[in-house]
Design goal:
six-stranded mixed sheet, five-stranded mixed sheet, 11 helices, 19 strands
């Protein structure tokens, strides 16, 4: 990657967000800095799937161009997210016998075990997006993170397999190619977002991540440091807006503004206030009570969290989220949403914001940017794993300090 620049492009239902970062510091002491960002509205994506190719291409170009201007560099290749109801995941297990005189486990053994576990039959319209290791078992020793170098006769691995629609993937790749952007890797939105907003101890203890986007809501559960469950439901922030537009008989754009300003209308300072709203069809403006918003939006919020809870319970993971629930995404900022989630899950709930980066992080320190910033964090780890991060040139003072033994 040229000069250790990283680009993340979040393809969402309402917006396309581009983040440009740069890895600075010496190998082993890397720091990731946000140096550019761009946002562009889009109507070419619906619930994570491309519905207007040219509209999506144009939005990608605008978003990338804005980020390039901010960063002062040219973006050529990127890590890109993928999500939608076509995404499916399963947990699987692989097992092999260890051969050789010393029976020492090698990387080839690990690869063979993972390949064995991921050898599943797929429909013709599906392809594997990720194969993620959860834990290894060496003979009877469970909970092994990295078995390479250990002695054993049998190696088992538990893996999480994520699949995506070939059609959805190809259409997204075509849009990016037309926007003159090479794709380094497509990354499941859940994974990218988790890199941005989840802390390592939360992943270890067990945590549920709920990312409420405009068209969909992504659900992920991490335990023992690994992804154990991922799913997407076709309900999101647009449903709040539509409910409000129908319930108050006001235009969609005005309903969106009311939603963003008052949220679920649960703030005591607003409950007795009235707001003036336009009617559809150019009819006379009317006044409604802010408390009406609670009656309209709270049931939808409860529905989203109940659906997420049911998904988690269906996998027997209710008792695994010891660190609680982290909510992120553009619609996660609605006033009153945290309180509703707290009632549904009866567990600690917090708002997830990007962290662990420098540079212009104050400009993107919002749930809206969680996936895009997570993509460049994922990219940094990917480059480290591949061993292709460039060593920072040693300056004069660094050379002197090294020669003097400091």
């Amino acid at each position: 990657m040229k000069d250790n620049y990283l680009v993340g492009i979040d393809i969402g239902t309402k917006k396309i967000c581009t983040i440009i970062g740069q890895v600075k510091g010496d190998i082993g002491q890397e720091e990731l800095e946000v140096i550019g960002y761009g946002l562009a509205e889009t109507s070419g994506v619906r619930k994570g799937v491309i519905v207007d190719m040219q509209g999506t291409v144009d939005s990608i170009r605008r978003s990338v161009k804005e980020a390039e201007i901010t960063a002062g560099v040219e973006a050529e290749s990127a890590y890109v997210n993928i999500s939608g109801s076509h995404i499916q995941s399963i947990n699987a297990k692989g097992s092999i016998n260890i051969t050789g005189r010393n029976r020492e486990i090698t990387k080839d053994d690990v690869d063979r075990a993972v390949t064995h576990g991921s050898s599943i039959m797929l429909p013709n319209d599906k392809d594997i997006l990720h194969v993620l290791t959860q834990e290894f078992i060496v003979d009877t020793q469970e909970g092994v993170k990295n078995p390479i170098g250990m002695i054993g006769t049998n190696l088992e691995v538990y893996i999480h397999i994520v699949t995506a629609s070939l059609t959805a993937t190809k259409n997204l790749l075509i849009c990016l190619k037309k926007a003159k952007m090479d794709v380094i890797r497509m990354v499941l939105s859940h994974i990218a977002t988790a890199e941005s907003v989840l802390m390592p101890d939360e992943k270890e203890l067990g945590v549920a991540l709920i990312d409420i986007g405009a068209g969909t809501t992504d659900i992920a559960v991490f335990e023992k440091g690994a992804l154990s469950y991922s799913a997407t439901i076709g309900v999101g922030g647009d449903n709040f807006t539509n409910d409000l537009a129908i319930g108050t008989r006001t235009p969609i754009d005005r309903a969106e503004m009311i939603k963003r300003k008052y949220g679920c209308g649960m703030d005591p300072n607003w409950k007795n206030q009235n707001i003036e709203i336009p009617s559809v069809g150019g009819k006379k403006r009317r006044c409604i009570s802010v408390s009406l918003l609670t009656d309209i939006l709270k049931p939808r919020a409860e529905e989203i969290f109940e659906m997420a809870k049911e998904k988690i319970e269906s996998q027997g993971l209710s008792n695994s989220i010891n660190a609680g629930v982290v909510i992120t995404g553009g619609s996660a900022q609605l006033e009153g949403l945290m309180e509703i989630a707290d009632d549904i899950f009866a567990a600690p709930v917090r708002l997830g914001k990007p962290f662990g980066m420098g540079g212009l992080i104050d400009k993107v320190n919002s749930p809206d940017f969680a996936t895009a910033t997570g993509l460049i964090k994922y990219g940094m780890l990917d480059l480290k794993d591949k061993g292709i991060l460039k060593q920072k040139p040693e300056g004069f003072f660094q050379r002197v300090k090294r020669q003097l033994g400091f």
